[in-house]
Write a structure and sequence with these properties.
- The structure holds 3 protein chains of 3 kinds.
- By secondary structure, chain A is an all-alpha fold.
- Chain B is built from 12 helices and 15 strands.
- In chain B, strand 14 and strand 15 form a beta hairpin.
- Chain B is globular, with a radius of gyration of 20 Å.
- In chain B, 64% of the residues are buried.
- In chain C, helix 2 packs across helix 5.
- The longest helix of chain C is centred in the first third of the chain and has 13 residues.
- The chains are: A mainly alpha, B alpha/beta, C alpha+beta.
- Chains in contact: A-B, A-C, B-C.
- Chains B and C meet through helix 4, helix 5, strand 5, helix 6 and helix 7 of B and helix 3, helix 5, strand 5 and helix 6 of C.
């Protein structure tokens, strides 16, 4: 699970062009949206693409996404349970 | 006699609800929607999304325009030339070079409809390479200008969904400033996979018919269309005894300065654009008789637009969303809705909104759903685009 | 009479402000040049990194030219020849192959040239009138009277105008700020000198 979390952090940094952020800057329990990383609605949509591309998970409801993307912990849990790749 | 506003002496339109002004009007008053599953575009989203597709194929359009076989018009230019030609005929312009005449056309797709089809096979198919130059938005407009014989100012506006309205605004400004005597203004966009897939990635396409201003709205339908107006100076109107269809009495543009694609909750950009238009027209809010709203049926736009309207108007006038008929035709939207606003004035008719059943949460506004016959003097038409670009136009009966 | 108070020209790793060299990078490749220029400006605006190349170019040019601007009432009139083609290609690549079909919303939102107007408006809180025109060349003969009208009629106090080229790694920004006072008269000659890079020391 630790490896998955590290992997997710790296993938998020690359996919969302978080140029000045490094893996060690993202805490597992910090909020990703609003405060914390301060991601916005377009970033949320990009994360949906990331889930499909990297893990074969198709998410079509952005509202469900809000819960899943609330932190690295919740995201990693969701991916571990639902991944097809 | 004192004249105010800019005179409109001709108009032309093609959309999924009609190939002429009269056909569009007929569909509007008979609640005939133009939305359907895609027929001509081969997209992976076929039978998943509805669009406002025009029935005429490119081959038929080429024939109607009398184009030679080796032409390099893409669908966007074909639709544009078709509608612009109708507008010019409606305005009875005897000689395009007789005055300082320009064309300001709006587009977002330009030649992308051909590029996405042929880009990877150009090398093996030299006969298709003629479409390479046609990709360019400026080329798309130039083709329409050349087709109509316009030698004066030719420019292209690309400001997303407010482009058509902005083309009309810029044209009106240039007439009022005496830079041009006559200008053909409007917009054109064809359906293409580039746009369909892009909007789908933003998760704002509806999987049914769009329901503007409805509690259960779930996104927009894309559409294709073209529409143009002919604007002329009052000197031209008097010298040639032109019939005037209506006037552009007000216009305003403002930036929402909030997000690349979403609208601010309180509709600040929209609010400012409407106020600027009213100020330009020297009208009070209660003098507006009818509003053709932007009304894309996305969760975000309709609430934001509603909030802007509630801030401007103590009693919001009767409103309807004609994208419920045509879908969202992007750069053409502001232009086709200009034609619908003028029709409203001419026919003293307020058009219905389709597919509405339930009022939005957090807004008291309910769109008009029936054909209403009422004398109208001033119509407000809103067009709000990505990039926060918000435009409002006011069309009025001429005095 | 209106004047051009400031102008800026960016190309090939060099930035000229009001005719004098303002910044130079030995690496003129756009991504690196833009990042270095951004960091040299010492602005804290992480959204910069999410922008596409055209928006980054517009952002950097306007950041420098508007450095001592204090009004929110600045109209924006930009123009170019290729629209958002630089980013359009990227979007097309993401949807071209059925086996690698991953349209990117973050790329798609930049497939419109006027998004750069939005980015500048968000950055500076401008709610003014803005327009993006596409043409073969900068249409001074129409943009100049339009700009004059915007300021004289009170629609804006200032106007930031100019040409932004971004295609296949070739970039050029030629912007000028029009207002009621300044070092150059707002006329056809001066505008064309700026757009054609004729004024650098």
């Amino acid at each position: 699970m630790t490896t998955l979390k590290e992997q997710l952090k790296q993938q998020i940094i690359e996919a969302l062009n978080l140029e000045d952020i490094h893996i060690e800057d993202i805490q597992d329990e910090d909020p990703l949206f609003g405060e914390g990383l301060g991601l916005d609605s377009i970033d949320a949509l990009e994360l949906i693409v990331l889930l499909d591309k990297q893990y074969g998970i198709k998410l079509t409801d952005p509202v469900k996404g809000k819960q899943i993307f609330s932190s690295i912990n919740s995201l990693a849990d969701f991916v571990a349970q639902n991944r097809c790749k | 006699m004192m004249y105010s506003g800019v005179a409109i002496t001709g108009m032309g339109i093609i959309s999924s609800i009609g190939n002429t002004v009269e056909e569009n009007y007929y569909s509007l008053i008979h609640k005939k929607s133009g939305l359907s599953y895609t027929k001509h575009i081969h997209t992976i989203h076929k039978e998943k999304i509805k669009v406002g597709e025009i029935a005429l194929t490119n081959e038929v359009l080429e024939e109607l325009l009398g184009l030679p076989n080796d032409n390099s018009f893409t669908r966007t230019s074909l639709l544009g030339a078709y509608a612009a030609k109708m507008a010019v005929e409606d305005a009875h312009i005897p000689d395009m070079s007789s005055s300082r005449t320009g064309l300001i056309s709006a587009t977002s797709v330009a030649g992308m409809d051909m590029t996405e089809r042929y880009f990877h096979i150009y090398e093996q198919n030299p006969s298709l390479q003629k479409y390479i130059h046609s990709h360019h938005a400026g080329n798309c407009t130039q083709k329409i200008a050349d087709y109509l014989g316009i030698k004066g100012m030719v420019s292209t506006i690309s400001t997303a969904c407010s482009s058509g309205a902005n083309a009309i605004m810029l044209g009106a400004t240039l007439i009022e400033q005496g830079v041009l005597d006559r200008v053909i203004v409007g917009g054109t966009d064809a359906l293409c996979k580039f746009t369909i897939n892009g909007f789908q990635s933003l998760l704002i396409l509806s999987d049914t018919e769009n329901k503007p201003f409805d509690k259960n709205r779930n996104g927009l339908n894309l559409g294709e269309a073209a529409a143009y107006l002919v604007l002329e100076s009052w000197e031209q109107v008097q010298t040639h005894s032109k019939k005037v269809l209506a006037c552009i009495s007000g216009y305003g543009n403002a930036n929402d300065a909030y997000h690349q694609t979403a609208s601010s909750e309180n509709g600040e950009g929209a609010y400012l654009a409407i106020l600027k238009a009213l100020q330009k027209a020297n009208l009070q809010p209660d003098e507006i008789d009818y509003i053709n709203v932007h009304g894309t049926a996305t969760i975000n736009n309709d609430l934001s637009e509603s909030n802007a309207l509630l801030r401007v108007f103590s009693n919001v006038p009767i409103l309807s969303a004609t994208k419920s008929y045509t879908g969202h035709t992007l750069a053409a939207a502001g232009a086709i809705e200009a034609v619908y606003s003028i029709l409203s004035l001419q026919k003293a008719t307020i058009f219905p909104t389709l597919h509405f059943t339930t009022k939005m949460d957090n807004s008291p506004l309910i769109p008009n759903t029936e054909v209403v016959h009422k004398n109208i003097n001033h119509v407000l038409s809103n067009s709000f685009g990505f990039g926060g670009n918000c435009s409002s136009l006011i069309f009025s009966k001429c005095v | 009479m209106l004047y051009i108070s400031h102008y800026i020209q960016i190309q090939k790793g060099k930035v000229y402000k009001d005719g004098a060299l303002y910044f130079e990078d030995s690496n003129s490749e756009f991504k690196t040049f833009a990042k270095n220029l951004y960091q040299s400006l010492e602005v804290q605006y992480p959204k910069f990194y999410k922008m596409d190349n055209l928006c980054k170019l517009a952002f950097l040019a306007s950041e420098i030219i508007l450095a001592d601007n204090t009004t929110l009432d600045v109209a924006l009139i930009f123009s170019n020849k290729e629209g958002s083609f630089d980013t359009d290609i990227q979007h097309q690549q993401h949807i071209q192959h059925p086996d690698e079909f991953y349209p990117s919303p973050a790329i798609f939102v930049y497939t419109l040239p006027n998004i750069c107007l939005g980015e500048i408006s968000i950055r500076h809180n401008f709610q003014s009138e803005s327009a993006f025109l596409i043409a073969e060349h900068y249409q001074t003969e129409y943009i100049r009277p339009y700009t004059d009208f915007l300021i004289r009629s009170g629609k804006a106090q200032k106007a930031l105008c100019g040409w932004l080229k971004m295609i296949h790694g070739n970039y050029e920004a030629n912007l000028y700020l029009v207002e009621s006072a300044g070092g150059l008269v707002h006329n056809k000659n001066n505008i064309e000198n700026i757009i054609n890079n004729n004024l650098n020391i």
